[in-house]
Structure prediction request, 260 residues.
Amino acid sequence: MLKKLFSKSKKGKHSLEVKESLVSNECLPSHIAIIMDGNGRWAKKRAMPRIAGHHEGMQTVRRIARVADDIGIKVLTLYAFSTENWKRPKSEVDYLMSLPQMFLNSFMPELMERNIRIEMIGDKEGLPSNTKKALNEAMEKTKNNTGLILNFAMNYGSRAEIVKAMKDIMVEVDDGKLTLDQVDEKTIDQYLLTSTLPEPDLLIRTSGEVRLSNFMLWQLAYTEFWFTDILWPDFNQDTFLEAVRAYQQRNRRYGGLKGE
Ligand code: V0D
Prediction:
């Protein structure tokens, strides 16, 4: 997996050695979740409209998906649009909703070449029909890909997700398909939108905000958190690898005690 990264690197041997010390195959996180913050601020700093920041943020998604794939990450969950984001000006929401299509139109050949599968969590029904169509087509096209799962949280809110899981479980109990005694943590896992995914090992949030903002509250119970002041459009491969290395160092330190 790492070989893939090195063989693609255009830099010399020395830089390969540096990167080798940066990430090893040991304790690689399977699932990384990212809150991609700071696109508006990035644009404001340059006296550009907010949508320019979102567009640049989309390019960062591409770069980070590539490096995650290269080092052998299994799932990358990206918080692209929260249920709160509908409160933004309509013009900005309209632009954001055009990004999945733009991203998928240009990135699909590479997604197929890399064997990447597109997935999403969130309330798909609440999305504009064009956006929904682009997502459905991409999920259908990539459904047999067995490499990295690129999972977008769109129109996602964790509390709403938990409420829905509770209601679905209550209906099962009501219908006599589950007894109250059978309901445990595993049951709740199974009724969340992430039922098929491993729990995130590492959460990254950019742009200096140190909050969860209603993101994967249940799933992040044992996750390592890594925060950076870097704005999402400025986030790059090296920053990503720095976060992975920090995760690996924490795991090496505490790993011996795990599972005991
Ligand atoms: C804007 C930073 C890619 C966050 C990244 C609709 C804010 C760029 C996608 C995307 C957004 C989503 C689904 C998919 C393929 C690509 C995306 C949104 C925002 C929200 F299948 N970037 N991106 N979606 N931004």
Summary: The radius of gyration is 19 Å.
